[in-house]
Amino acid sequence: MIEPIDLIRPELLALSAYHVPDSSGFIKLDAMENPYRLPPELRAQLAEKLEAAFINRYPDPTATQLRERLIETMGIPAGFDVLLGNGSDELIQILAMAVARPGAVILGVEPSFVMYRMIAGFCGMKYVGVPLREDFTLDLRATLAAIKEHQPALVFLSYPNNPTGNRFEIDAVGDILQAAPGLVVVDEAYHAFADDSFMPRLPQFPNLLVMRTLSKLGLAGLRLGFMAGRPEWLNEFDKVRLPYNINVLTQTAATFALDHLDILDGQAAALRAERARLSAGLAALSGVTVYPSEANFVLARVPDARKTHAALKAGGILIKTLHGAHPLLSQCLRFTVGTPEENDAVLAAMAQSL
Predict the structure, then answer these.
(1) What is the pLDDT of residues 246-304, one digit of tens each?
(2) 8-state DSSP, 246
(3) What angle do CA 111, 114, 118 make, to 5 degrees?
(4) How far does Cα 169 stand from its chain's mean position?
(5) Which parts of 289-332 fold into alpha helices (H)?
(6) Which residue, 44, 133, 179, 271, has most beta carbons within 10 Å?
(7) What is the pLDDT of residues 4-27, one digit of tens each?
(8) 246 and 112 share a domain?
(9) How many other C-beta atoms are found inside a 10 Å radius of the C-beta of residue 59?
(10) Among candidates 17, 1, 35, which has minimal Cα distance to 267?
(11) Does the residue 96 lie in any domain?
């Protein structure tokens, strides 16, 4: 009888599937989601839009209306286009599949978004991870040396970085763009919470792609990511994109939400204010080190991450433990910024658990 070991590549057999814990009954602060829903009146209007959608027909294969709204609302420079994905994960996979020649390399910094490394493995590519400094800042010298040595086809930089929350120095990212022989993807999943963006710099760097998602803005359930870049690049990547990857309901709902972007921006502003309050509250606790964040989460180092994580979970609060994920993340926990009431609950539970 044939077994998986007889067919599946060894490097895939060694992996574990991406695990999402059950969050039923918890205050859910482990996945960087926006805790706020659309206002009731907008939800009612959206319901009417979805009711009228032709789910018996295939969707617009290029999502023309949605792409136009993204270009209008996301500051895409003139002459540039966007490619849509079922979340940013699909876009990362499209990029990797398109450049996966024998010997091709993907390079990133670590710790960072785990899907860069995982998808490189899925596509049979070598992944090179350059460690950040102990304070999670970019080690530019080591990164440039790795680029020179490995000549990567793709460089991924999360900006701000997940899971550390910090945004790398603008000039350092520019140096990487100048040095890279291939494409540099600046992943701006948390752009709504950050103080800078590389989107306006697209005309400055011919090898720059800027990737974003609508998940952190409050539309995580839609699974919509997009990548902005020069049409000559996106046209090639579009050949790898599966047909009809953005379904009718996502196209309808996302286009509607972008017509009310002011509501989502207002929610992001509220979360930025709560981020400052949560960071200050955590930093005031004995033995807790809080790291600067320009995302919708806060990274903190505690005396015993597993014990603290278990105590919060027992109290009905689900956060992310990163201890063991990377040596630089020893004893670290990641707190998604929630509502004021949720953040109050976190701070009270933290005070009791330490």
Answers:
(1) 999 999 999 999 999 999 999 999 999 999 999 999 999 999 999 999 999 999 999 99
(2) S
(3) 130
(4) 18
(5) 305-314
(6) 271
(7) 988 988 888 887 777 777 778 899
(8) yes
(9) 20
(10) 35
(11) yes
Is a pLDDT exceeding 90 seen at residue 306? Answer: yes
Mean pLDDT of all residues in 326-344: 98
Sheet architecture: strand order including 208-213: 81-85, 225-229, 208-213, 183-187, 154-158, 105-110, 126-131
* Residue owning tokens 């990274």: 299
Q: Are residues 336 and 216 in the same domain?
A: no
pLDDT score, position 18: 74
CATH code, 233: 3.40.640.10
- Is 154 within 8 Å of 286 (Cβ atoms)? no
- Cβ–Cβ < 8 Å for 23, 30: yes
| Cα–Cα dist 132/173, whole Å | 14
pLDDT in tens, 126-165: 999 999 999 999 999 999 999 999 999 999 999 999 999 9
194 and 95 fall within a common domain: yes
Q: Which residue matches tokens 């295939």? A: 58
Which two tokens mark 72? 């209008």
Residue with tokens 């033995």: 287
Whether 330 has a pLDDT exceeding 90, the answer reads yes
Residues 81 and 111 in one domain: yes
| Measured CA distances, 45 to 230, 261, 284 (Å) | 35, 15, 44
Determine, yes or no, domain membership for 297.
yes
Kindly state whether residue 239 falls inside one of the protein's structural domains. Answer: yes
The residue segments making up the domain with residue 212 are 54-260
pLDDT value of residue 318:
97
